[in-house]
Specification:
This protein is of the alpha/beta class. The two termini are 28 Å apart. The strands form three sheets. It has a seven-stranded parallel sheet, with helices on one face. It has a two-stranded antiparallel sheet with strand order 1-2. It contains eleven helices and eleven strands. Helices cover 40% and strands 17% of the residues. Bound molecules: NADP nicotinamide-adenine-dinucleotide phosphate (NAP). The site of NADP nicotinamide-adenine-dinucleotide phosphate (NAP) has 29 residues, from helix 9 and helix 10.
Amino acid sequence: MQTRHIGDVAVSAIGLGGMPMSVEGRPDETRSIATIHAALDAGVTLIDTADAYHIDASDVGHNENLIAKALASYAGDTSDVLVATKGGHTRPGDGSWDLDGSPDYLKQACDASLKRLGVEAIGLYQFHRPDPKVDYADSIGALRDLLDAGKIRLAGISNASPEQIRLSNEILGGRLAGVQNQFSPAYRGSEPELVLCDELGIAFLPWSPLGGIAKAGDLGSKFAPFAEIGRRHGVSPQQVCISWLLAKSPVVIPIPGSSRQETIRDSAAAVHLTLTDDELSTLDAG
Ligand SMILES: NC(=O)c1ccc[n+]([C@@H]2O[C@H](COP(=O)([O-])OP(=O)(O)OC[C@H]3O[C@@H](n4cnc5c(N)ncnc54)[C@H](OP(=O)(O)O)[C@@H]3O)[C@@H](O)[C@H]2O)c1
């Protein structure tokens, strides 16, 4: 597996998104653990999660617990696996998503994630989403304190604007390691953030890169060029999509979600697919 960098840490160029294994419609634990093991077998060394990937308030951290269990039960070496988690979103239990970006809450949430993941320092800790009730600089100040205290190895932000990226990097003293924003054939609105990350050398992790859990299967029917180019290469439209994202910049590290061994194997194989400049232009246009 090719590698890319988040800060000074080399990770697989394609990560595994953990969300489909813990939110509504999730599979049973045996299938999820087999999916995570299949990702590791394929050379994936980046797993993205969040404390809020669960269904109701009684199972906060479901996805973090699952990942910790899968890593502990894996037969191979997992010392180079970076688990990227997030804090700042809460789920009260009625299906909705709430926000708490207050420094006290973020520090508490980080301590709880450390416990669930069973590590001394979190690989990459990302502020999940700006909370309009809290000054953004105060939320990022909490990340800086966590970095300085050694509780997190790398700091990242998510759902951020270019201004928030610049401000965060300043508050963190140039140590902003990752930005996770939505980017897919269906949603290209984070192009300015991607371009800025490329300029600053900050990893850009596109979330819902295939269009999201409910829509990923329809990518080829909704975006014909991805299906056509896939047919030409004998691969799935989803693999074409991940290869297209990788080609956008060396800072891009897609994190396709998966809840089946087949899908993560197929996505991880996108590192072997090289698209021509003409094909990339066609995909950019459609
Ligand atoms: N920061 C944020 O605010 C935020 C928001 C949303 C998501 N995320 C992160 O981003 C990750 C990815 O986003 P996502 O899971 O929402 O959406 P996604 O990656 O666009 O789509 C996930 C779905 O794609 C299917 N899939 C994956 N590879 C495939 C392939 N090669 N062929 C066909 N289908 C394939 C999977 O199906 P199966 O389930 O059948 O395997 C999965 O359910 C999440 O898991 C999460 O870690 C972050």
